[in-house]
Design brief:
Number of strands: 0
Shape: globular
Order of helices and strands: HHHHHH
Structural class: mainly alpha
Helix content: over 70%
Strand content: under 5%
Number of domains: 1
Length: 185
């Protein structure tokens, strides 16, 4: 079997535009970066704005919206895996989702009502996004720390401006902002 064959399809790659072969590492890497990079940022922004508005208005993060965000990120990551031929983005995305979701689940179990279940659910797609931008454990830890720091500062400032510390505060918008900033930086 030739080295550039696609064994799972038992087929030879077809030439692309202008005769480019499908095994061109520069173009494949660029395609994977576009799919898993800026398209993922756009997808995240497109979903986190309505999620943030909904959370700020109602204090709820609807599961269907959170699941839609995650499904789109998974599809984009798998498209990037197919474009690049490397499983690294999917592996690191899974680790990021598990780490961020697990961390907020642990915080919720310790803090009780201080953190809502919707925030824990939202941490999974945000962690998936952050893991996709990571190159290792330290990147995931740093990205989650930045996301949580931005979220904590934003929530404290918002609470201080409202001057009503006893009222529940929507934490989801701040988590979304922190993840976007950490993932793009």
């Amino acid at each position: 079997m030739p080295p550039h064959a696609l064994p799972w399809l038992d087929a030879e790659p077809r030439p692309g535009r202008a005769g480019r072969q499908a095994d061109d590492p520069v173009m494949d890497g660029l395609a994977a970066d576009v799919v898993t990079g800026w398209l993922a940022v756009a997808w995240l922004a497109a979903w986190t704005v309505p999620l943030s508005i909904t959370d700020a208005r109602t204090g709820r993060l609807p599961s269907l919206m959170v699941n839609g965000l995650l499904a789109g990120l998974v599809v984009l990551t798998l498209a990037g895996v197919l474009a690049s031929g490397s499983m690294n983005p999917a592996v690191w995305s899974s680790i990021g989702a598990t780490a961020f979701g697990g961390l907020l689940l642990a915080v919720r179990s310790l803090a009780g009502d201080g953190l809502g279940g919707g925030d824990v659910r939202l941490a999974v797609p945000l962690g998936w996004f952050l893991g996709n931008t990571a190159m290792g454990w330290t990147d995931i830890v740093n990205a989650v720390a930045v996301a949580l720091l931005v979220a904590a500062v934003g929530a404290l400032v918002a609470s201080g401006l409202r001057r009503r510390w006893r009222e529940p505060l929507a934490f989801g918008p701040w988590l979304c902002l922190g993840a976007l900033l950490a993932g793009v930086a």
